[in-house]
Amino acid sequence: EQMAKTFKNLTLNNKNLLLYIITSNNLDNINEVFTGEGLEGKYIVRGRIEYEEISDHLSAADLGLLFIPPFSSQLYRCPIKTANYLACGLPYFITPNIGDDSKLAEELNIGILLKENKNLEIQKILDKLETSKESLRNHVIGLRDIQLVINFLKLSLE
């Protein structure tokens, strides 16, 4: 429900905005909530897709959205969606206090914190963000490459 309300706020200043939702949640419930907010024609929702197909779907987007409730436990979360978005060359919107990803969005200029703001003009935001697909892909390699974990584990075993 909160996601639908936030998205409705975003459509106020972004008339051509289309939200593409891929979820394993109940599609009927999502349709009911979004339709209840008057968002007919402003979103597409589809069920789960195979992981191997994710990049095909994400590559059609202009930006990614991580809409995660900012509970205190989320500060220790590392959403794989962030890596997926960056690997596809997409900057991302994220709620505050989600692992390092919220902080990195602003520090590296690769995303924006999504707060209760009805006046966001997405194109103006994208114009200010790092949107070079190559640069965004390089960030994901620097932040989430499996070799980082391997090196860390090797050091901790020494």
Low-confidence stretches: none
Sketch the topology as an H/E string, one letter per element.
HEHEHEHEHEHHH
Tell me the fraction of residues in β-strands, as a range. 5-15%
How many strand segments?
5
Key words describing this protein structure:
single chain; 158 residues; mainly alpha; three-stranded parallel beta sheet; two-stranded parallel ribbon; 8 helices; 46% helix; globular
Helix-strand blueprint:
Blueprint: H1 2-12, E1 19-22, H2 27-36, E2 43-46, H3 54-58, E3 64-66, H4 80-87, E4 92-94, H5 101-107, E5 111-113, H6 122-128, H7 133-144, H8 146-157
Parallel strand pairs: 1-2, 3-4, 4-5
How would you portray this structure in words?
This protein is mainly alpha-helical and 158 residues long. It has helices spanning 2-12, 27-36, 54-58, 80-87, 101-107, 122-128, 133-144, 146-157, and strands spanning 19-22, 43-46, 64-66, 92-94, 111-113. The strands form 2 sheets. The protein has a 3-stranded parallel beta sheet with strand order 3-4-5, covered by helices on one side. Helix 4 (80-87) packs antiparallel against helix 7. The longest helix is centred in the last third of the chain and has 12 residues, at 133-144.
In short, what is this structure?
With 158 residues, the protein is mainly alpha-helical.
